[in-house]
Amino acid sequence: MEYRLTDWLPTTRKELELRGWDYVDVILFSGDAYVDHPSFGAAVIGRTIEAHGWRVAIVPQPSWHGDFRDFKRLGRPRLFFGIAPGAMDSMVNKYTAARRLRSEDAYSPDGRHDMRPEYPTIVYTQILKQLYPDVPVVLGGIEASLRRLTHYDYWQERVRPSILCDSGADLLIYGMGELPISELCQRLEDGILHHRPDSYCTVADFKATLRRHPVRQTVMLCTKDEVPQGIGPNDIVLHSHEQALADKRKYAENFRHIETESNRMEAHRLLQAVGTNMLVVFPPYPPLTTEQVDASFDLPYTRMPHPKYRGKRIPAYEMIRHSVCLHRGCFGGCAFCTISAHQGKFIMSRSKESILREVRQVAQMPDFKGYLSDLGGPSANMYGMRGNDLSLCRQCARPSCIHPAICKNLNTDHRPLLAVYHAVDSLPGIKKSFVGSGVRYDLILHRSGNEAIDHGKQKYAEELICHHVSGRLKVAPEHTSDTVLKLMRKPSFKLFHQFKKLFDDINRRHGLNQQIIPYFISSHPGCHDEDMAALATETKALDFKLEQVQDFTPTPMTVSTETWYSGLHPYTLEPIYSAKTPDEKQRQRMFFFWYQSQERPKLIAALRKLQRTDLIEKLFGPQDTPRRSQRYEQKTSAKHESYRNLSRKQKPRQSKRRRPRGDQ
């Protein structure tokens, strides 16, 4: 299909003129390259605003040096500036867990590192406030969403207030932003501008309108006297930023409320004092309906990078260009994961018809060879799942629907997902569709007691492994220790053993030679060196040489990060050990690579220090144990003792060697 330049949202003054525009309602500044695709947040928000009748433009990766010409390129908008820092947290995107620079920036052309600053939300906002002090600035995206309240910043190694305070912005939208951004634009238009192209929204107008008519799923900073409707009995007042800064226990106590209200179907308003001001976090919208999710995915995306990137490679786009997302949200509630903090725990699924429309669009791409790289989502096999009785879900405050046990009210039927697979594979031009997203094997193995649903899970496992695995199936057990897994909110490793047996049995029956690829994490709160040693021996016994591993990275707004920083579990306030120093983290990480010869001496020394010499033989075999094994030491020690007991006359005489002279 041939596209014209005007098929993308405008990025320059020339592109505005091609559309015949002499003004713009909203200008978005993006930390990512502009890819017009439903997996890129700036494109989703831009297309959403456009679909409601407003004029929107995008300035991707503006230069923050020099005269700030990129920030002045399109002038001022009628409504506000929007900051979309990127589809991935800027610091996670830029640095590893060891704070080393990553090999490339996946969301920049040719993977360049110099296309965005650290914390673009703060940098972009401060520049805009310097150039246009009277124009409102609205924050969005994952970077702002995870920093909406007091949070620990791993890269700066300190507790920071809400990013609203650091940036100077006027409003923050958290989570997936289609509904709040649409309502915000409508409130400003109706309350201030009255659809007059020559009228502009000021900061004073903006704040006055939102105090009268607050928008759900937003965060505002105001004086304590300006809190909309005052502080009511249903509001949850958190410990102030200053209290959280001074007392790690209060910091940890805050997070339990933050996570709980993020995942409620009917949440309470949160308030937190910061100095003389008050942060007000308005409850999120209810989960999107199928029609609303379809509407977002069915917007007129080109699914291509902007023509300005012709001839350049955008790594993140290359990864997903031939993939299709089936749903949003994840009810796993993994302690280290930010998905539920941003997308929520409730699954919001697309209709089969909407999915097929996008697959047909992918099939028309000139470089498509018939293979879909992924039919998935945050977790590949949660499509269509929800509570059987939604009245129970409205009362639920659990952050996870499947930990510590799978909720009896959760419908875990895999048959709707199988129907999607069958419909996609029957389309002309589709040779094969793969599942590249991670699969929750605990859902597949769970027995609900409903014979039809349980039979559907067995059928799903068979079809997944036989027809939708490209030789390697990704799963994420994360660890082998039940103690660590409990802190991670992950199921027992015994379930992984069951799933691997199922995987191997199906491969054997069908004559397939496929691999299962498990993901593991080191240095997670609660994990000790002994746990990593046990992980190494247990995965070796399963014949794994681990590849997909990572060191725990503390990111804002997760249970694991709050535990790591405070030393206390936010729900129990019990002390939890965490490996923090580079030496402690490296000691744990090296157990992943027991099969590398350069790691062997260090591992043997570590196991001896742990007094776990029994694991040395399990990892390296008896022929590779050091000469001073336990038996050798005992034998040598006994020999020395008997020698010491001999009398002086009984001891053999030792010849004395002459000391050489200096001239010899």
Notes on the structure:
There is one protein chain. This protein is an alpha/beta fold and 664 residues long. The protein has three domains: 5-218, Rossmann fold, CATH 3.40.50; 340-470, no CATH class; 473-635, Transcription Regulator spoIIAA, CATH 3.30.750. The protein contains 27 helices and 20 strands. The chain has a nine-stranded mixed sheet with strand order 2-1-3-4-7-8-11-10-9, with helices on both faces. α2 (41-51) links the parallel β1 (26-30) and β2. α2 packs across α8, α11 runs antiparallel to α23 (559-566) and α15 packs parallel to α17 (415-425).
How do you describe this structure in short?
This protein has 664 residues and is α/β, with parallel strands linked by helices.
Largest sheet: 9 strands, mixed
Briefly, what CATH class of the largest domain? Alpha Beta
Average pLDDT rating: 92
Supply the CATH superfamily name of the largest domain. Cobalamin-binding domain
**Structural class given helices, strands, pairing?**
alpha/beta
> What are the segments in which pLDDT stays under 50 over at least 5 consecutive residues?
623-633, 651-664
Q: Can you give the helix content as a percent range? A: 25-40%
Which architecture name of the largest domain does CATH use? 3-Layer(aba) Sandwich
| Individual helix count | 27
Tally of structural domains: 3
Number of strands: 20
